[in-house]
Amino acid sequence: MYLAPLNYDRFFKKVFSNIKIAKRFLEDFLDIKIEEIKFLPTKHSITDDAQIVEFDFWCNTEEGYFVIEMQQWYKPDVVQRFYVYHALNTSLQLENMPKKLIPIKDKKSKEVHDYTELMPTITIIWMVSDTLNFKVDYVSYVLTPEYITTFLQDSKEWTTENCHIILEKRKKMNALLNNTKKNIGFLQKNKLIYVFQSNIVKNKSITKYYKWFEFAQKTLNKEDDRLAYEKYRKDEIFCEIIRRLEKSLKEKGSLEYIKTYEEYQAGIARYNRGIEKKQKEKYETELKEAKAREEEERRQKEEAKAREKEERRQKEEALNKAKENSLKLAVFMLKSKITDHEIMRETGITKEVLNKLKKENL
Fold first, then answer.
1. CA-to-CA distance for 8 and 244, rounded, in angstroms?
2. Per residue in 160-179, pLDDT tens?
3. For the chain, what percentages of helix, strand and coil (3-state, to nearest 5) are there?
4. Other C-beta atoms within 10 Å of 37: how many?
5. What's the predicted TM-score (pTM) here?
6. Residue 183 burial (C-beta neighbours within 10 Å; 0-12, 13-18, 19+)
7. How many separate domains does the chain show?
8. What's the domain range around 122?
């Protein structure tokens, strides 16, 4: 293999330990300009039982604090895990946060953290294979007023007839987003970004960041041809990346690390296929059961409909029979010289029907 895989943790850390490389990646991916970048320690003890969390990469700039996590291994908790990392990206700033004096009673004062110095945090989860079922290059999550998401998900309002209502609500939402009172816009500057390498390579987006993920994908494919990386050698930063990956590959234990890494991945792939097979079987079973329930419900509805129809037929038949009997009784009573009042009372027929019977039978 010509280059060590950039996506493997050991080699990713060796590459991104170069400040120029890290700076360039962040600038290309986030489309920003960074004047100064400072690396920060990646290992942290965060709980009473000394649980250690280790970032793949952590730095700060004038734009804020950045974490980059390379996610190659299979992890079922990828959403919750990196939400915690994102929260840590913010809370770890407390270690070096400046303090200020505030007055308390009896003309005394005390020291507290000056939270106005808190910087925005951006956490980038570089997903190598998993796409979380998205088709786009990446998905960025930020804090926004819940009113906005509720409005977007309300399908009842999104109709042509409600166009004027939608536009009016859009104005209100823009007012919410543009509110700068007490620096509330800070919330939207914090981002948790899931980046999907396989989607980016497939989509071939015309972006500054595309070549980073294309390059990373090539290193996974074990390219033996030196010309495969020729176009990257025109870029000083990528030249340094290539140099570091070449050097890393020659280091003691690297080939064994790659072999172990890939064996583990193969095992995970088999495990995932097993899980997918079970999920598929479960889905097919549930689908079959759902169809059976649907068929049973359809049969029961048809039977109920048939019973209802039969009941209506029987009721109509009974009504017609009762009507027929009433008419026969009315005719008999007419011939027996019984008064009209008594006939209508006994049979329930109207005066009009009685007069018609008289004409037909007398």
1. 13
2. 777 888 888 888 888 888 88
3. 60, 15, 25
4. 18
5. 0.71
6. exposed
7. 1
8. 9-142+190-251
Q: How many Cβ atoms are within 10 Å of 358's Cβ, its own excluded? A: 13
Residue 220 Cα distances to 4, 274, 336, 343, angstroms: 8, 24, 109, 101
- Whole-angstrom distance, CA of residue 238 vs CA of residue 229: 9
pLDDT band at 196 (very low <50, low <70, confident <90, very high): very high
Percent of the chain clearing pLDDT 70 (strictly above): 95
pLDDT tier at 16 (50, 70, 90 boundaries)?
Answer: very high
DSSP codes, 122-148: EEEEEESS--TT--SSEEEE----HHH
On whether residue 110 sits in a domain, the answer given is yes
Find tokens 């996506």 and name the residue.
7
pLDDT of residue 155: 67
Q: Is residue 91 in a domain?
A: yes
The whole-angstrom separation of Cα 76 and Cα 261 is: 18
Contact criterion met (CB below 8 Å) for 68 and 24: no
Instruction: Say whether pLDDT at 278 is over 90.
Output: no
Question: Is 354 part of a structural domain of the chain?
Answer: no
At residue 239, the pLDDT reads 94
How many angstroms separate the CA atoms of 49 and 91, rounded?
Answer: 18
Tell me the pLDDT tens digit for each residue of 20-47: 999 999 999 999 999 889 998 888 777 6
> Of the candidates 312, 241, 291, which has an alpha carbon nearest to the alpha carbon of residue 7?
241
Cα Dmax for the chain: 126
pLDDT averaged over the chain? Answer: 86
| Model confidence pLDDT, tens digit, residues 326-336 | 888 888 888 88
Q: Is residue 271 a part of any domain in this protein?
A: no
Burial category of 94 from C-beta neighbours within 10 Å (exposed 0-12, middle 13-18, buried 19 and up): exposed
> For residue 148, is pLDDT > 90?
no
State how far the Cα of 147 lies from the Cα of 172, in Å rounded to an integer.
10
CB neighbours of 204 closer than 8 A, spacing ≥ 6? 210
Report how far apart, in Å, the C-alpha atoms of 87 and of each of 124, 165, 272 are: 13, 37, 29
Which of 187, 203, 186 shows the shortest CA–CA distance to 195?
203
What does the DSSP assignment read for 172-227? HHHHHHT--GGGTTHHHH-EEEEEEHHHHHHHT--STTHHHHHHHHHHHTT---GG
